[in-house]
Amino acid sequence: MTDIKNHCIINLSKLDNYFIYQKGGNLIMNVNGIEYENTDTLKVEEAAKLMHKNPSFVRCGLRDKRFNFGCAVFHNGRWNYYINKQKFFEETGISVAEDVDK
To answer: Do residue 64 and residue 87 come from a single domain?
Structure first.
């Protein structure tokens, strides 16, 4: 599991009425009868490679709130980064290549 998933699970452990399960390859969290589907994420290094930039460029942009596709949080003496995959592709205009064999 990614750090963000572990963080959510730890915080949800304080609730009485929740459970987590997999459905069709996706992680689903059910809290008080409401289902939440996990979002796909990118690593800083993956986003940087797609943008043809250095990972530090992406980290600085996230820390300075210059990108709308993710965020950076300073916690316990270190920076943590979150990049929403769908928002990344929408904002950058980068498109996923179609499979040639189809």
So the answer is: yes
pTM, two decimal places: 0.66
Domains of the chain: total: 2
* Segment holding 51, helix H or strand E: helix 44-51
Tell me how far apart the alpha carbons of residues 32 and 67 are, in angstroms, rounded to a whole number.
Answer: 33
Give the distance from CA 89 to its chain's centroid: 13
Q: Report the distance separating Cα 78 and Cα 75, nearest Å.
A: 6
Q: Does residue 52 share a domain with residue 32?
A: no
Over residues 43-54, the pLDDT tens digits come to 999 999 999 999
Choose among 51, 49, 47: nearest CA to 81: 47
Domain encompassing residue 57: 44-92
Q: Are 55 and 63 in contact (CB under 8 A)?
A: no
